[in-house]
Amino acid sequence: MSNTTKPVSLTIGSREFVWGERTYLMGVINVSPESFWNGRYGDEEAALERGRKLVEEGADILDIGGQSTRPGFDEVPPQEEAERVAPIIERLVSELDVPVSVDTYKASVAKAALDAGAHLLNDIWGFRPPSNSNAPEMAALAVEYGVPVVIMHNQRDREFHDVIGDIRAGFEASVAIAQEAGLARERLIIDPGFGFGWTPEQNIEMLRRLPELQALGLPMLIATSRKSTIGFVLDDAPPEERLHGTSATMALAIANGVDMIRVHDMAQMRDVARVADAVVRGWSRDP
Hints:
Blueprint: E1 9-12, E2 15-18, E3 24-30, H1 44-56, E4 61-65, H2 78-95, E5 100-103, H3 107-115, E6 120-123, H4 137-145, E7 149-152, H5 163-181, E8 188-191, H6 200-208, E9 221-222, H7 228-233, H8 243-255, E10 260-263, H9 266-281
Parallel strand pairs: 3-4, 3-10, 4-5, 5-6, 6-7, 7-8, 9-10
Antiparallel strand pairs: 1-2
Helix pairs in contact: 1-2, 2-3, 3-4, 8-9
């Protein structure tokens, strides 16, 4: 998979995402009461209002999650998770003109979300949950419904060798599972998994070495928003005091080749992305 040319674009829902043109923004809608950051939208109307606000502030895609995956999270039964996300996805798809993603690693939840109209799967295990390292169900669903997938490398409960080496090996395995299921690699977005099984020092190393993942030839998403590593660097700052630190990680990630950022604070990160893009991709003032 090395030295592969990145696909030019990817259609998600009715929108075309042209890689390299600019940084795209994924807005988070948590419908889980266990989420580590504020903005938990269990009520459909509140979630819909959150979606409208994110779109108004610049979101290119909305990511709906029904279970917290922070360190030490408690498993939510699949039926309960599906009941949290599916009605909200159906409302968002019908009332807002924006692609919608579902953040889940459970096939039954993914199917419910796809039946509700979701346009993208966001799988934190990258088709490789620890209970079954070759589980193909998520990849098969993506093929059946014709949707692309974000495959994340999750280092939790895996042996450590080298940050980027482990991430690359994880993506190699995920892509192989996808292709075995008939899901073309051009339909994949990679996420190196900031905060998922790494120490704070390893998370920082990951950000610094992101350019090494460009050889994979796949568009890349990063999700650092208000995570604990930023708090550690800022002398144990709580989540509500991590906005500026998040801005730093996002700007550096864009400089290091990221194509999409997953964020809670849309208006602020929109401006971060615009300025970072001006530096990285070129900018001139309108006459």
